[in-house]
Amino acid sequence: MRIAVITTIVFLNFIFQSTLLSHFSLFYTIPNTALIIVVTYAMLRGDVEGAILGFCAGFLADIFFGRVIGVSALLLMFTGYFAGKPFRDFFKENYIAPIILVGIASLAYEFMFYVLNFLLMGRTDFVRYLGQIILPVTVYNLVICVFIYRAIYGINRALETREEKKRGFMKK
Predict the structure, then answer these.
(1) pLDDT of residue 90
(2) In the chain, what percentage of residues exceed pLDDT 70?
(3) Phi and psi for 66 in degrees, rounded to 5?
(4) Which of 44, 58, 143, 150 is deepest in the core (most CB within 10 A)?
(5) What pTM did the predictor assign?
């Protein structure tokens, strides 16, 4: 059940991010909702599940929008892995930790995306990219992070409750 729900979330996010969200651009950028979902899910479920989700969400984006297949998949996989590593036992109702981690992950992801897609091709105008892409996307991600975290947290909690009931039923 969890796999079906998370797959649905990834596909709905992909459709939402590539169609409707483009109409809500801020300074000609849109938030990276896939990154926010990967980070929040990794915080709630751990590094391995975060890495798997990151790879799948990034690979989907690479297939449709990437110049080189695998860049987003690799970056989101590492983001999911490292976001889930230190947060196995944290107070999940706390909204400060996801906001801080989404900010750090956004900066790191966008910087590495710049390095792999632009710097290696000879485009060295980093200050312009920082001001026009990295910082606006990071701020936009921080603003909507709370809403996405709350939704993912609620879905995860409902799935965990269902799994607990199923396990209890199987033991009897």
Answers:
(1) 67
(2) 94
(3) -80, 145
(4) 58
(5) 0.88
Q: Which residues pair with 128 in a beta bridge?
A: none
Q: Do the Cβ atoms of 110 and 137 come closer than 8 Å?
A: yes
How confident is the prediction for the chain on average, in pLDDT? Answer: 86
Judge whether 32 and 141 are in contact, CB under 8 Å: yes
What does the H/E/C string look like for the chain?
CHHHHHHHHHHHHHHHHHCHHHHHCECCECCCHHHHHHHHHHHHHCHHHHHHHHHHHHHHHHHHHCCCCCHHHHHHHHHHHHHHCCCCCCCCCCCHHHHHHHHHHHHHHHHHHHHHHCHHHCCCCHHHHHHHHHHHHHHHHHHHHHHHHHHHHHHHHHHHHHHHHHHHHHHC
Cβ-based neighbours of 101, under 8 Å, separated by 6 or more: 39, 43, 83, 87
- pLDDT tens by residue, 108-139: 999 998 888 777 777 778 888 888 888 999 99
> Taking a C-beta distance cutoff of 8 angstroms, is the pair 151, 105 a contact?
no
| pLDDT computed for residue 164 by the predictor | 85
For residue 139, count other CB atoms closer than 10 A to its CB: 15
